[in-house]
Write a structure and sequence with these properties.
The chain is α/β, with parallel strands linked by helices. It has two domains: 34-248, Alanine racemase (TIM Barrel, Alpha-Beta Barrel); 255-383, Lyase, Ornithine Decarboxylase, Chain A, domain 1, CATH 2.40.37.10. 27% of the residues lie in helices and 26% in strands. The chain has twelve helices and 20 strands. The protein has helices at residues 6-10, 20-33, 45-49, 53-62, 73-80, 99-105, 114-127, 151-154, 181-197, 244-249, 356-363, 367-372; strands at residues 14-19, 39-43, 67-70, 88-90, 108-111, 131-138, 146-147, 165-171, 207-209, 227-230, 255-267, 272-273, 279-280, 285-290, 307-310, 313-317, 326-329, 342-349, 352-354, 379-383. The strands form three sheets. Strands 1, 11, 14, 15, 16, 17, 18, 19 and 20 form a nine-stranded mixed β-sheet that branches. α7 (114-127) links the parallel β5 (108-111) and β6. Bound molecules: pyridoxal-5'-phosphate (PLP). Pyridoxal-5'-phosphate (PLP) binds at residues 43, 45, 91, 173, 212-214, 229-232, 368. Pyridoxal-5'-phosphate binds at residues 43, 45, 91, 173, 212-214, 229-232, 368.
């Protein structure tokens, strides 16, 4: 997509490589796992989970996805400005001053209460522009959505025939998709009951969706759902717990994260290393100072524990990760290490590989947080 020459890459202090072919293969694997009639809403919030919105969205179009989901209107506008006409769902509540953008750019928000509805209706009527929405039902996440026990009182059906605000979907969201199967099933059954309570059945033209990446239904026949909102999966990352259907998809890693060795030197035994002297050398120690710190996405929680690869060998961080620099202990290197050599934080190098999940355990981050925390200072390079 944006070819970067070897020489250009040598001048990069830190960079992320995004393998768009792997992304496309992963989407095809996920697609093959869900029935044909189910709409695939590709969630690309937060700059496509840190992979870069524009390149990811362009490639996803080739994989036959049906809609996009983003966090806010700014992200939605960025997609529209790429000339993309697919439906775009806004997943977080919309501020009153953002409503005009919904109409102007044809973005679909979730609606969670009467107030939100009335603000939209007021704008739509006065500008004579229809706004499409999905109604969200809170089945136990405790965040956005109409609380499921209040549906009868709220009489959601009255929203279905409004000429200015058009309901095109109904949705809920699971709070414990990868951590509590029983609770997820409880939310699922509350949602299916809510749909019945709203008079929705399999013949409805609305998009009905509940599942995100880690909680796709095992039995589609029993479900009224005809759409899924998939975020993390195509980036080849799973939850920390093993989930059989995710393992069966055999997803490939998409993102690799690299830096450079920027300085090599030897410290004597018995001296402190780095800010606040959180580590001491126990022997004459050869260190490599790397060209990345917490401002690039190496969490300070990784201090003195995380490892990185140089020439396929693992080395541990020594001392505290600083804003722009991190120190590795390379005393035991079996190969010669030079200034300018590539360092792998996430990805394969020779026989060894550090997965995004491993990197995020050291960072004490959840997987999506960890991908997103690789900062804008880190250049994105696209291959495939
Ligand atoms: C982020 C998000 C998703 C996607 O979640 P993944 O677990 O990353 O697939 C789906 N729905 C909503 C409402 C979200 O905010």
């Amino acid at each position: 997509m944006f070819p970067v020459s070897t020489a250009d890459r040598r001048a990069m202090r830190s960079w992320v490589e995004v393998n768009l072919d792997a992304l496309e293969r992963n989407i095809n694997r996920v697609r093959a796992h869900i029935p044909d009639h189910v709409h695939y809403i590709a969630v690309v919030k937060a700059d496509a989970y840190g992979h870069g919105l524009s390149a990811v969205v362009s490639r996803m179009l080739k994989s036959g996805i049906d809609a996009f989901g983003v966090a806010n209107v700014q992200e939605g506008i960025r997609i529209r400005e790429q000339g993309i006409a697919l439906p775009i769902l806004i997943l977080s509540p919309v501020l009153p001053d953002e409503i005009s953008s919904l109409g102007e750019y044809q973005l679909m928000p979730f609606i969670s209460c009467r107030d939100e509805w009335e603000r939209l209706q007021c704008w739509a009527r006065s500008h004579e522009k229809v706004i499409s929405v999905h109604l969200k039902i809170d089945t136990g996440m405790g965040r956005v959505g109409f609380w499921y026990e209040d549906l009868a009182k709220q009489d959601l059906k009255r929203y279905f025939s409004d000429p200015w605000v058009r309901v095109e979907g109904l949705a809920t969201h699971f709070s414990c998709a990868s951590s509590d199967k029983a609770y997820t099933e409880l939310q699922r059954s509350r949602f299916q009951n809510s749909l019945r309570c709203c008079g929705v059945d399999a013949s409805s033209p609305m998009w009905i969706h509940e599942s995100s990446s880690f909680a796709l239904p095992e039995n589609w026949q029993k479900s009224l759902c005809n759409a899924v909102r998939i975020g993390a999966l195509p980036y080849g990352v799973g939850p920390d717990v093993q989930i059989p259907f995710i393992q069966s998809l055999a997803l490939e890693p998409v993102l690799s994260f690299y830096s450079r060795v920027s300085l090599i030197k030897t410290l004597p035994a018995g001296v402190p290393v780095g800010y606040d002297a959180t580590a001491m050398t126990h022997r004459p120690t050869r260190i490599a100072v790397l060209s990345a710190g917490y401002a690039d996405g190496i969490s300070t929680s990784a201090s003195n524990v995380a490892k990185a690869l140089i020439h396929g060998q693992r080395f541990q961080i020594l001392g505290r990760v600083a804003m722009d620099q991190t120190i590795l202990d390379i005393t035991d290197a079996t190969m010669s290490i030079q200034v300018g050599d590539r360092v792998t934080w996430i990805g394969r190098d020779g026989e060894d590989e550090i997965t995004a999940n491993e990197f995020c355990r050291w960072s004490k981050h959840i997987i999506r947080e960890c991908l997103y925390s690789i900062s804008a200072r880190v250049q994105r390079v696209y291959i495939g």
